[in-house]
């Protein structure tokens, strides 16, 4: 499906306006401390007015019962005596502390000035203990309430001095739901749907098996989401929004319901999935004397590699005037099989193309490390082939430099085996040493941590996972009519000015060029803007 080019607003990581807090963090005076019951009632009132708390499922009763108040005091005293330090599995820490209407970021995202303030006041360890608790959401009235409570945890003030925060337990199911959404937010913080997608005129490309997809290209990433059409899945090409690599263009040819797919970046054929067809509707067969190979100049000892044999010259699904033959973006600079060592040009025709045509099964070609050669087309040093054998795959790794001796194999080639058949065997053995690497395809909710994420200008980590669960503080998805054909992972501006993310495409109206989607608001995290100000 084609997607409209994302606007700058779609790229931005927006945050909600933060109201300045009325109190500062001067040394708290406890001489006018309120009773636990009164304080908790006021806290309850403040919290219920907060937009972050409107969907809390567990009612928090006012702590006016002395037994309850006593139990809470004992818990606070225990916490002050021995702060709980939790070791998170897999190194993933999903904390959930809210001060007023502000959900705090992850601990490692705490600004240096606030870290210094907490350390100076001797409460940094208590803050880490509380903020790294992934099983409970803590709701504080304001920043002074938060600091006073941390001081009580540290034993700096009496255990009966500070009312406890409201607490919302987080179930494993809620945490998992939030974690999956956090992974989607993390992925789309870095990647946005590319302006160039698989043609909507070739829906069958979305049925290509993951293992046979051609590469997404430098700075790009394949994602696979649910598709409202009958195919049940949709490939979406995402582009890194913090880098500026040349846009990858998916080119489709042949039968729209089972098309060939060529991936082109900066004029280079990165690789392709070739699906034979015997329907003349989608073919423009030619002979060698009829073609000028898209006007590509010849080069010594090299061959202008046609993407498929000439009688399989498939017509573009987007432009009927374009075919494999006259579109230079589909060609590969191949080593010449007629030369001393025997390259791969005629071998590829006999051992890959003709076989695919005869049995009707596809193959995938990956042009490794392609650069523009003298002919101005992709010249890879090696080429991987994955050949569909009807449920299983045969992988070949071939030298395209013309230096591997594929021709002079007498004495090692089995009796009765032709030279090109043995060349195939050589490629099979090389594939064992250089295994074919299918392109990574991101799925919804899949863990995603880009090792370069902190080098991207403006990168923001997603909110803590408890806030992303619909059963705790996150809003449920909203059904919205959006212009164009947004994909899962597209960012949209919500009516209230916040940022949302498309989590599901329900259907698309090609006549009105609109889509009905489920959109989920992405909560923001931020420290109160006057925290630590004297």
Rg from C-alpha positions? 30 Å
The oligomeric state is: single chain
Q: What percent of residues adopt helix (DSSP H or I)?
A: 10-25%
Distance between the termini: 55 Å
Chain-averaged pLDDT: 82
Number of helices: 10
Overall structural class, as computed from helix and strand content, comes to: alpha+beta
Largest sheet: 6 strands, antiparallel
Strands ordered across the widest β-sheet? 8-9-10-13-16-17
Secondary structure: number of strands? 22
Low-pLDDT residue spans = 1-43, 45-93
What does the overall shape look like?
elongated
Beta-strand fraction estimate: 15-25%
Description:
The longest helix is centred in the middle third of the chain and has 19 residues, at 172-190. The chain has helices at 8-11, 36-48, 66-81, 112-120, 124-131, 143-153, 172-190, 345-359, 419-433, 465-468, and strands spanning 97-99, 102-103, 136-140, 166-169, 191-193, 220-225, 234-240, 248-253, 260-265, 268-274, 302-305, 332-335, 363-368, 371-372, 378-379, 382-388, 393-399, 441-443, 478-483, 491-493, 499-509, 514-521. It contains ten helices and 22 strands. Strands 8-9-10-13-16-17 form a six-stranded antiparallel beta sheet. Strands 2-1-3-4 form a four-stranded mixed beta sheet. Strands 5-7-6-18 form a four-stranded mixed beta sheet.
Which structural traits does this protein have?
single chain, 534 residues, alpha+beta, 6-stranded antiparallel β-sheet, 4-stranded mixed β-sheet, 10 helices
Reconstruct the topology from this structure.
Blueprint: H1 8-11, H2 36-48, H3 66-81, E1 97-99, E2 102-103, H4 112-120, H5 124-131, E3 136-140, H6 143-153, E4 166-169, H7 172-190, E5 191-193, E6 220-225, E7 234-240, E8 248-253, E9 260-265, E10 268-274, E11 302-305, E12 332-335, H8 345-359, E13 363-368, E14 371-372, E15 378-379, E16 382-388, E17 393-399, H9 419-433, E18 441-443, H10 465-468, E19 478-483, E20 491-493, E21 499-509, E22 514-521
Parallel strand pairs: 1-3, 6-18
Antiparallel strand pairs: 1-2, 3-4, 5-7, 6-7, 8-9, 9-10, 10-13, 11-12, 13-16, 14-15, 16-17, 19-22, 20-21, 21-22
């Amino acid at each position: 499906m084609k997607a409209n080019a994302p606007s700058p607003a779609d790229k931005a990581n927006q945050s909600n306006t933060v109201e300045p807090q009325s109190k500062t963090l001067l040394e708290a005076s406890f001489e006018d401390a309120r009773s636990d019951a009164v304080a908790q009632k006021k806290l309850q009132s403040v919290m219920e007015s907060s937009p972050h708390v409107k969907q809390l499922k567990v009612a928090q009763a006012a702590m006016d019962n002395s037994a309850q108040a006593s139990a809470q005091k004992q818990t606070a005293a225990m916490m002050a005596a021995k702060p709980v330090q939790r070791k998170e599995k897999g190194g993933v820490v999903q904390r959930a502390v809210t001060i007023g209407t502000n959900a705090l970021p992850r601990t490692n995202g705490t600004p240096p000035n606030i870290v210094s303030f907490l350390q100076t006041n001797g409460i940094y360890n208590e803050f880490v203990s509380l903020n790294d608790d992934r099983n409970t959401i803590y709701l504080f009235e304001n920043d002074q309430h938060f600091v006073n409570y941390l001081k009580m945890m540290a034993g700096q003030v009496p255990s009966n001095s500070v009312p406890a925060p409201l607490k919302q337990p987080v179930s494993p199911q809620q945490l998992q739901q939030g974690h999956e959404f956090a992974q989607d937010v993390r992925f789309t913080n870095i990647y946005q749907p590319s302006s160039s997608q698989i043609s909507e005129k070739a829906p069958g490309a979305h049925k290509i098996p993951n293992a046979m997809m051609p590469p997404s290209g430098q700075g790009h990433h394949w994602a696979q989401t649910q598709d409202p059409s009958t195919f049940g899945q949709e490939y979406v090409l995402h582009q890194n929004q913090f880098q500026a690599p040349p846009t990858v263009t998916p080119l489709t040819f042949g039968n729209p319901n089972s098309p060939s797919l060529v991936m082109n970046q900066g004029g280079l054929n990165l690789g392709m999935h070739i699906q034979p067809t015997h329907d003349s509707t989608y073919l423009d067969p030619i002979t060698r004397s009829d073609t000028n190979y898209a006007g590509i100049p010849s080069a010594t000892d090299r061959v202008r590699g046609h993407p498929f044999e000439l009688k399989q010259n498939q017509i573009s699904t987007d432009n009927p005037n374009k075919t494999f033959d006259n579109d230079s973006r589909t060609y590969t600079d191949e080593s010449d099989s007629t030369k001393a060592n025997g390259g791969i040009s005629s071998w590829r025709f006999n051992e890959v193309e003709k076989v695919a045509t005869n049995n009707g099964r596809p193959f995938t070609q990956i042009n490794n490390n392609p650069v523009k050669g003298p002919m101005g087309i992709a010249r890879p040093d090696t080429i991987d082939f994955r050949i569909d054998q009807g449920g299983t795959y045969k992988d070949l790794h071939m030298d395209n430099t013309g230096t591997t001796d594929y021709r002079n194999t007498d004495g090692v080639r089995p009796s009765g085996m032709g030279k090109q058949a043995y060349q195939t065997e050589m490629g099979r053995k090389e594939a064992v040493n250089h295994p074919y690497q299918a392109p990574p395809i991101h799925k919804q909710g899949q863990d995603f941590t880009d090792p370069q994420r902190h080098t991207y200008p403006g990168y923001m980590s997603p909110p803590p996972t408890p806030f992303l669960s619909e059963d705790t503080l996150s809003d449920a998805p909203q059904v919205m009519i959006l212009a164009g054909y947004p994909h899962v992972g597209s960012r949209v501006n919500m009516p209230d000015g916040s940022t949302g993310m498309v989590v599901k495409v329900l259907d698309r109206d090609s006549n009105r060029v609109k889509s009905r989607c489920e959109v989920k608001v992405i909560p923001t995290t931020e420290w109160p803007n006057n925290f630590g100000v004297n």
